[in-house]
């Protein structure tokens, strides 16, 4: 059996997760969050020092943390996990016990692999649900981000409603453990 932080992804290899280190990972993450494909992260004009400071703030926050996802040992994606009653969605929805919030970003590449992003979001959800206290994952993608909305739907998210956040109009969406397992084949993966 795999460790909770290590998930095989069929022919796509193995995904693991480690905590993000703001000092040593800032340059790497800077290249990801400032890439044009990461426009929804709203950090396109950030300098490396801005990225480091952002992730130092996240690391210091008691209800928010960040991780680097590895594909076959190489950095390939970013995960942010947060308590939605304290960060991002505080006061914007009715939280349920066991809710956890999530953002994820796949590193840009010149050689895309078919199915890779779906394998990443599946690995991210496996990682989040490895914590038995997590009963539901909530996300708030931009209403215009149809690509991530399709990925969310593919792993079991359902749109709850549109919400107005200071930086965007978002589709509040949620996915229970049961919805995720039903959409992805559960333990058959």
UniProtKB/TrEMBL annotation:
The species this protein was found in: Streptomyces californicus
Biochemical pathway: Siderophore biosynthesis; mycobactin biosynthesis
Matches recorded under PROSITE patterns: GNAT
InterPro entries xrefs: Acyl_CoA_acyltransferase, Acyltransferase_MbtK/IucB-like, GNAT_dom
Keyword Electron transport belongs to the record: no
Top-rank lineage group of the source organism: Bacteria
Assigned keywords, A-Z: Antibiotic resistance
UniProt-recorded name of the protein: Lysine N-acyltransferase MbtK
GO terms (BP aspect): response to antibiotic
Lineage, opening ranks: Bacteria, Bacillati, Actinomycetota, Actinomycetes, Kitasatosporales
Pfam families for the chain: Acetyltransf_8
Task performed by this protein: Acyltransferase required for the direct transfer of medium- to long-chain fatty acyl moieties from a carrier protein (MbtL) on to the epsilon-amino group of lysine residue in the mycobactin core.
Sequence ranges assigned to domain N-acetyltransferase in this UniProt record: 15-178
Signal peptide region: none
């Amino acid at each position: 059996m795999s460790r909770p932080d290590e998930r095989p992804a069929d022919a796509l290899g193995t995904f693991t997760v480690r905590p993000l280190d703001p000092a040593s990972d800032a340059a790497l993450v800077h290249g990801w969050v400032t890439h044009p494909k990461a426009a929804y992260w709203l950090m396109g004009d950030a300098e490396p020092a801005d990225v480091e400071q952002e992730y130092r703030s996240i690391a210091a926050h008691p209800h928010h943390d960040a991780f680097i996802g590895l594909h076959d040992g190489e950095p390939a994606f970013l995960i942010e996990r947060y308590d939605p009653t304290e960060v991002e969605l505080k006061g914007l929805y009715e939280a349920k016990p066991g809710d956890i919030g999530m953002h994820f970003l796949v590193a840009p590449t010149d050689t895309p692999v078919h199915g890779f992003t779906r394998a990443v979001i599946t690995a991210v959800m496996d990682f989040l649900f490895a914590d038995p206290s997590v009963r539901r994952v909530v996300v708030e993608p931009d209403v215009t981000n149809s690509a991530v909305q399709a990925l969310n739907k593919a792993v079991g998210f359902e749109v709850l409603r549109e919400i107005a956040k200071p930086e965007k109009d978002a589709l509040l969406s949620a996915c229970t453990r049961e919805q995720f397992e039903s959409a992805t084949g559960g333990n058959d993966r």
